[in-house]
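Recap quiz, item 2
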Amino acid sequence: MITSLITSFIVGGLICVIGQILMDGFKLTPAHTLSTLVVSGSILDGIGLYEPLIDFAGAGATIPITSFGNSLTHGALAEAEKHGLIGVLTGMFEVTSSGISAAILFGVIGAFIFQKRNTTY
Amino acid sequence: MKKILYISLVLLLLTACSNEREEAIYPAEEAPQLEEILNKQDTINGYRSVLNDEDILVAIDIKRMKRFNKEKIEKNLKKQLEEKFPDKEILVTGDLKVRWELEKVMDNQLNTEKLSETIEEIKSLSKEET
Amino acid sequence: MVNAFGTIQFKEMPSIASTGVVVGPVEKESFFADSFDEILELENEKEESYEQANSRFIEKACTIAVQQGREQMENIDVFIGGDLINQLSPTNFAARKLAIPFLGVFSACASSMESLILGSLLLESGNAKSILAGASSHHPATERQFRYPIEYGAQKPGSAQWTVTAAGFALLQKHAKNAPIITHATIGRVVDGGQKNPLHMGAAMAPAARDTIERHLKNTNSSMADYDVIMTGDLGKIGLNILKEMFQDEDSGVILQDAGAQFYGENSFFNSGASGAGCSAAVFFSYMYDQLKNGVFSRVLLVATGALLSPLTFQQGETIPCIAHAIECRMEKRG
Amino acid sequence: MDQKQFDKIVDKQTPKAPLFVNMLKAFLVGGIICTVGQLITFFYIRFFPFTERTAANPTVATMVFIAMILTGTGLYKKISQFGGAGSAVPVTGFGNAVISASIEHKSEGYVLGIGGNMFKLAGSVIVFGVLSAFFVALIKTILVKMGVVSW
């Protein structure tokens, strides 16, 4: 258990460090950084490396936004494996990500609950 | 900040060394052959296995640094077991959930009927893929 | 009279009869907090949009300025003002309530001085007797338009500045008793220093400030040492250092000051300092106005700087053009 | 003064982002967020019928829920100022982008305000996630058909 926590800490932390390097070193905006990471996650899954990383690091690999690219690609690939080229297309419409649905749901709920407050400093 | 890093490093080393091999097969006396194969594995820290007339469920605790190859290790072991037990359905997994479920089976000393029910449940659980 | 370089000399001596400055709750932290007329506890009241809140700040500041000048709102001839929001909606909406003939102006954070220059010209020409002029900005409203939503977590670099929530308006009248007079004004040119980083406004605006100050000094045949203070609007700490280094004048080190750099003191949360049209308006119409009135300063140059960018232009990769308007104020004991 | 001289002055006066310190902070904050995620994963595996793989979905949803609370109370912004990418890269950062935008645009109504602006910041992540997934899957499928790689 504890080793799992530590590996997820280290792997998750390292992915964030890569993000920080993109932001500070390459002067990317947060949106550019996150998009880059999502695309990398998707490519990593394409060459079959992301799933082993999840096996290794658990939440350290599923919580960073890279896993978003991974799950999308994984869905598309699973369909492609079954139905060939046409599966890539149909797969695209089948894949879901709990991140998006959760963000939409809690975004609306959050807007309901929270009022505007004074800016804090 | 650095302190936390050091502490976590020390913890990592400690836990890496202190993992004891936990091995258990239920019902215990059933399968000396199975035990033999499982004990040979050097990529795992331990295992839990439950079997009845049709199925063998094995939950392995894969060593931390070998977990990258989780799928391969599972497949490999499954193949070995299938050779030895051609008439049984075999499930090998490194999944924590299955391990915990098998522990429950062992703790509750389930009898045959309940056992096969639970085994079916566990099998369907592990089939679910995201 | 506008000469070739854009410096205007006012012969009729328009004066700043009174001022009104209203700030938000964060500005309690300000170095200038004691000089502000009113600090509101709520940045925006319940169910009120940020833009509405901005209008409320403007209305309050105008009311205070008029009250302190012992005038009636209906006696004001013209209301000149600007803010940072699209189509100047907060000022337009405030003008709807004030019901005074209205001129909306925009030169981003330099709007405060632009409205003051226009007001002085109207007084000078004899077409008006009392004028309300000033500018405002509202932190959350500006932030959401130019940057990110308020609650979005984006790490700010050390060069970033904090748009203040403040409205500052001045009542301009001819020959008001015991009030600072406006002697000169220099209209700024749009200067582009080739900067592209919207989180580093100080660097973008410094060349415009330099251009305007230089032209003003040249046109009025004066040097920096003739002024007690030359105060820029919102260059921030880094922008001020850049401006000082560009001048390489031995006097520039002391005389050049910046309202944005001093606004929040040394509080590192605000990084390089304050910014926004309300920053220059609030400081010039409270602290600087008081100092002039109390005779601490007798001759100052107020230079408000503005970055003329929009969220579209910097996303399209354009550089940030900037402008700076200057007003020279003097306090003379007049019988 | 020409452009070069000016650029030099700007360069000299602008403070450099402390890359190493920022990296360390990002590591710490990102690591902690992922560890919390791992704890939540354990919770779901233990008490609900989820395996390690399937537990990722409820975990992500729970993390976004936590992000909602932190965003609404104004804490997420503070964590981000300290943690930088450490709080932007985990899915909580994605949640923060969506939730902050929808709270912000509530004043323009539920359809045009919240509905229209919710993905103002986070939309690009979805767009590029889906696009790259499509192309990666396409390329891999073609390569498999050609016999260069296997599934």
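Chain A has one domain: 2-113.
Chain A touches chain D through 81 residues (CB under 8 Å).
End of item.
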